[in-house]
Specification:
Elements (H helix, E strand, L loop, with lengths): L1 H9 L9 H17 L10 E4 L27 E4 L4 E4 L1
Antiparallel strand pairs: 1-2, 2-3
Length: 90
């Protein structure tokens, strides 16, 4: 139920399009999902994933962006996963 609710909230949104109340709900859902430690197959991860929500990591860090793209409303952000690496595209 939590995974479906999270998907319904974030599907089709950009990371800067959430009101604060929705951000609290998304963070809460992410935390509950992480705590459940659902099994997943590593082969399901490779591909191009749209970045639709940015949450600080455990140490307060976000995405490591070393690509010289400005933070403009029309930029689409993606992460491309392979079995060995993640590439952030701004």
């Amino acid at each position: 139920a939590d995974v479906t609710e999270l998907f319904d909230i974030i599907n089709g949104h950009r990371q800067d399009s959430y009101p604060q109340e929705t951000r609290f709900k998304v963070s809460e859902l992410i935390e509950r999902i992480v705590q459940k430690r659902y099994p997943w197959e590593q082969d399901e991860l490779p591909g191009k994933w749209a970045l639709v929500y940015l949450q600080p990591g455990p140490d307060g860090g976000g995405i490591d962006r070393r690509i010289p793209f400005p933070e403009l409303w029309f930029n689409n952000n993606y992460q491309v996963f392979t079995r060995e690496s993640v590439t952030n595209i701004g």
